[in-house]
Design the sequence.
């Protein structure tokens, strides 16, 4: 659940407006479904209130870099953490997408995010990492992150991958309509699972789940069990 768009070029949203958007949704979902809920925010005040309302995870697309109090807030409320890499805020992050080695630099940034969280008291087993596909990266950078996704396993944390409908898929396929990027999305799901991704953020859950389960079975080979 998120109350502030993080798409490239998106303007910021104030704390109160974000709270007004997300808290009623979390409260209703918590009453009606039993699955774990995640709050997508870079603000510690929103994270704290959302967890109190029923969220169990905090997804911080800044990797704890936008709000210096976020790590302590996550630790204090006992939430799990998804730490993502980005370069700059959504309204400026695509202004500079140059890296010497995109995988090494993103991995080092995520290592720092994990270290910050652990130092604040977040249990390591409650942290997952996200290389931030599409956040401060160009098309070649996104493709390189996917090609070398297995290198993020060196951090020892589960890898979360979010590629669904993203613009780099549109560029590869020559497809401007995000709704017509399903085939490309499923290709990244399969490749992601093969490279070690444990968590996937998608729009069409059913097809993605089937693609992920099939990819996982292939990766397991003779060890696979239904």
Sequence:
């Amino acid at each position: 659940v998120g109350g502030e768009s993080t798409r490239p070029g998106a303007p910021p949203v104030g704390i109160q407006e974000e709270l007004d958007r997300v808290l009623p949704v979390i409260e209703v979902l918590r009453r009606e479904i039993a699955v774990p809920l995640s709050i997508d925010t870079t603000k510690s005040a929103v994270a704290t209130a959302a967890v109190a309302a029923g969220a169990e995870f905090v997804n911080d697309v800044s990797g704890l870099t936008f709000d210096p109090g976020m790590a302590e807030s996550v630790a204090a409320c006992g939430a799990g953490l998804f730490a993502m890499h980005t370069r700059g805020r959504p309204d400026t992050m695509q202004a500079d997408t140059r890296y010497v080695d995109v995988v090494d630099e993103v991995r080092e940034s995520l290592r720092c995010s994990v270290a910050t969280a652990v130092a604040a008291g977040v249990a390591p087993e409650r942290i997952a990492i996200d290389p931030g596909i599409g956040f401060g990266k160009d098309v070649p950078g996104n493709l390189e992150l996917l090609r070398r996704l297995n290198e993020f396993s060196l951090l020892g944390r589960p890898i979360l991958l979010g590629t669904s409908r993203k613009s780099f898929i549109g560029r590869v396929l020559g497809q401007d309509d995000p709704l017509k990027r399903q085939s490309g999305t499923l290709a990244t799901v399969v490749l992601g699972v093969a490279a070690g991704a444990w968590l996937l953020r998608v729009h069409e859950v059913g097809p993605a789940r089937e693609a992920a389960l099939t990819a996982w079975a292939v990766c397991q080979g003779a060890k696979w069990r239904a």
